[in-house]
Amino acid sequence: MSRPQLNIKFDGEGEKELLETVKTRAQDERISLKEFVLDALKNRLTVHLATQSTQPKPALTKPEVDELKRRIVDIQISLMGEVRKDRKQIAALAEAIALIESRLDVLDPPNTVTVEEDSQARQSRQEETWENDAVDFLDAISWGDDNG
Known about the structure:
Shape: elongated
Strand content: under 5%
Oligomer: single chain
Distance between the termini: 69 Å
Number of strands: 0
Number of helices: 5
């Protein structure tokens, strides 16, 4: 297994003095030269990332701004159309609820007959009433169309 290495030659002008300064600082801080160099590299990377995030972002060009404005308007128009459709559907549902409420007495009339009905006849009559009212209900509803 190979370990990554970083080999640096200090043969430029002033680099030998820099190396001696680094060694002295590492000894003063009682850490190894390797730890000192790694800390210095980490600090440099952190400073670079911090300054990079605080730099102003490039301004948008006029065509980009115009395109964004156009897209916003398109989205607003689309949302208004959806709201209009929703309002129509809510109105249709409210109308249907009102129709159901007005027919509640027909669906479940007060029981004034004292004669016992046989359960099959009662069930058959209730099913017919429900079916007829369901058909009337569906006929009365005007569902929202796609034209808005």
